[in-house]
Amino acid sequence: MIHVLGGGSRLCDGVTRRELMRVGGLSLFGGLALTRLLEARDSAAASKRRHGTARSVILFNLLGGPSHQDMFDMKPDAPPEIRGEFRPIQSSVAGLQVCEHLPKAARLMHKACLIRSVTHNYNAHNPLAMMTGFAGGENAQITANGSDPPDIGAVCQYLGRGPRDVPGAVCLPCYPGWGEGIRRPGPYGGYLGSQYDPLFSTCKPTFERMPRRNHYDPVEPIGVPMMPSLDELPEMTGPRLDGRRGLVQQLDAGLKAAERSPAMQRMSSYQRRAFTLLSSSKTRAAFDIASEPDRVRARYGRTLSGTSLLVARRLVEAGVPFVSVHAEIFGNMGHSYDMHENNFGMLKDYNLPILDRVYSALVQDLEDRGLLESTLVVVMGEMGRSPRVNGAAGRDHWPQCGFSLITGGGVKPGTVYGASDKIAAYPKDNPVSPGDLVATIYALMGIDANTTVPDRAGRPMPIAHGGEPIRGVMG
């Protein structure tokens, strides 16, 4: 819990011992002390820091497994039970067609690279394979554990990427599985340790109606991602300071007082750096989307995915190297992209309009601000969907073929890499493993994909798990 530095019994230097303990012991990164994170970042080999085109990455995870043949790999000449209900439209790239319900994305395809041959056999609803490059996990795994490999954000932190006064990785709007009461594998430090977990934001989504059909009549989650524990404001000590001042003023005043404290001077260098990171106005300001112009906020929309991607853009501006945004499942309010039933209704009325809006808003916003070339935007899911439509008008799990849409950050624009067979069941040309995709992200960030990190036994483990950068998609 974050506690605002407030009143109470004080030491002779003016700061209570309890408040210093709260600050010193607070972890925004999964439960371990932040000082351990900072110490570990400094221990990373400086020789493994290279200059890459992409200073930052924003990864948008379409949790559940997006239907590639109904979105970016359509098969209009296939039988009806394969091609489905949607029609293709021409994109801004000659010969490249995408779904009719993605008109804004279609107009931006000349800025993007579309990979149509992502393939693996990890049939599990989590982004572990696509965020780590490791596709050898257990198919039944639904919770993260310490033996999992670290994700890209954890590796960025291990290697000391990014400024020292902002987190090395942030996960929005919550950890995957929060809406279901579980922690799905993916965005964690894994065997590097939870000190390399990202900063997990929190959220309090609201819904304008109840679903008419559990799971398969999705309702938009409305809300904004928040700094950790801001949803627990009633328990904070800050209001005791001065009920007439705002939270930000209280934070600023309390933190500045602590910084002047002799007790602060007695802290170790790592403890002082931890305090600086926790009190960083850059991080707090990035979550304050109220300062954005109305036209920009309207472009992204009110959904959690939209506001999370807007915060992601602001975090990138602050220098955060890796931000992941997850299309979360909230109880029975919708199964996100896990569309075993009502595939076409869920896509047409919910998933595709949101994706079309937020992807185009993010890309245009980054370009307007001169950030697109230095920011890699990755849109992906943990798997594709089955070629044949089932009896419930849905498509089932199909990790053997899927897509990834990557934009900016040094990719070769207007490129289509790989191809699936005539029913979108298997790659026909240039198969791409999760390791290859992750290695490509590392390469664009200037990180050698052959870099190793120690597992819990101290053995060197390659960060891309044997994957190789896809040179055909790199500019």
Estimate the helix proportion, in percent: 25-40%
What is the percentage of strand-forming residues? 5-15%
On the 0 to 100 scale, the average pLDDT is 85
**Element-by-element helix/strand order:** HHEHEEHEHHEEHHHHHHEHEEEEEEEHEE
Q: How is the biggest beta sheet arranged?
A: 8 strands, mixed
| Count of individual helical segments | 14
Choose one word for the global shape. Answer: globular
In whole angstroms, the N-to-C terminal distance is 44 Å
Summarize the topology.
Layout: H1 17-25, H2 34-43, E1 56-61, H3 80-83, E2 88-90, E3 97-99, H4 103-106, E4 112-118, H5 128-132, H6 152-158, E5 169-172, E6 199-200, H7 247-260, H8 262-266, H9 269-278, H10 281-286, H11 294-300, H12 304-318, E7 322-326, H13 343-368, E8 375-380, E9 384-385, E10 397-398, E11 402-408, E12 415-417, E13 419-420, E14 427-429, H14 434-445, E15 452-454, E16 460-462
Parallel strand pairs: 1-7, 1-8, 4-12, 5-6, 5-7
Antiparallel strand pairs: 2-3, 4-11, 8-11, 9-10, 13-14, 15-16
Helix pairs in contact: 2-9, 12-13
Protein traits:
alpha/beta, two-stranded antiparallel ribbon, 14 helices, 28% helix
Quick description:
By secondary structure, the protein is an alpha/beta fold. The protein contains 14 helices and 16 strands. Helices cover 28% and strands 13% of the residues.
